[in-house]
């Protein structure tokens, strides 16, 4: 992944927060998933009145890719923030993936898969999947 690709992934993830459907938590998450082919799959969180059927941004992106026959991934950028009083999303801190999303990543992404987080200012953090989900249960 080049620095330019990383920057574009972050920008795309930020844009995806606009599509987030979060009338319950008012917390909007965007994700941009880079496939090894260079293709980018996007996702946002999609909530539901029954809460349980809600889907995170990361899983939306991964499931979109897998459902289109793509299963080889290099990196994902994830950003999230709450709405302010005017209903605008404000990204103020890092938004690390939840445990369920980490487990879904482990199904399709290798240990060296990169998770890129952006705090909305100038902070970028990058982790491998192995670092965020050590000793994981998997097909292996
Ligand atoms: N959320 C994500 O989209 N990704 C995560 O990894 C953490 C949480 C969403 C789920 C829910 O719609 C909202 O953020 C608040 O938990």
List the helices and strands and how they pair.
Blueprint: H1 3-16, E1 27-35, E2 40-44, H2 57-66, E3 73-83, E4 89-90, H3 99-108, E5 114-118, E6 124-128, H4 129-132
Parallel strand pairs: 3-5
Antiparallel strand pairs: 1-2, 1-3, 3-4, 5-6
This protein binds tetrahydrodeoxyuridine.
Tetrahydrodeoxyuridine binds at residues 22, 25, 27, 29, 45, 47, 54, 56-58, 97-98, 101.
* CATH H-tier superfamily: Cytidine Deaminase, domain 2
Share of residues in strands = 25-35%
Multimeric state: single chain
Number of domains: 1
Bound ions, cofactors and other small molecules, one mention each: tetrahydrodeoxyuridine
Structural shape: globular
Which CATH first-tier class would you pick? Answer: Alpha Beta
User: Which stretches are low in confidence, meaning pLDDT under 50 for 5 or more residues running?
Assistant: none
Helix share of residues?
Answer: 25-40%
Tally of helical segments: 4
CATH architecture: 3-Layer(aba) Sandwich
Number of strands: 6
Q: What report would you give on this structure?
A:
- The structure is a single chain.
- This protein is an alpha+beta fold.
- It has one domain (3-132): Cytidine Deaminase, domain 2, CATH 3.40.140.
- 27% of the residues lie in helices and 26% in strands.
- It contains 4 helices and 6 strands.
- Strands 1, 2, 3, 4, 5 and 6 form a 6-stranded mixed sheet that branches.
- A hairpin with a 4-residue loop joins strand 1 and strand 2.
- It is globular, with a radius of gyration of 14 Å.
- It starts with a helix and ends in an 8-residue tail after the last helix.
- The mean pLDDT is 98.
- The structure holds tetrahydrodeoxyuridine.
- Residues 22, 25, 27, 29, 45, 47, 54, 56-58, 97-98, 101 line the site of tetrahydrodeoxyuridine.
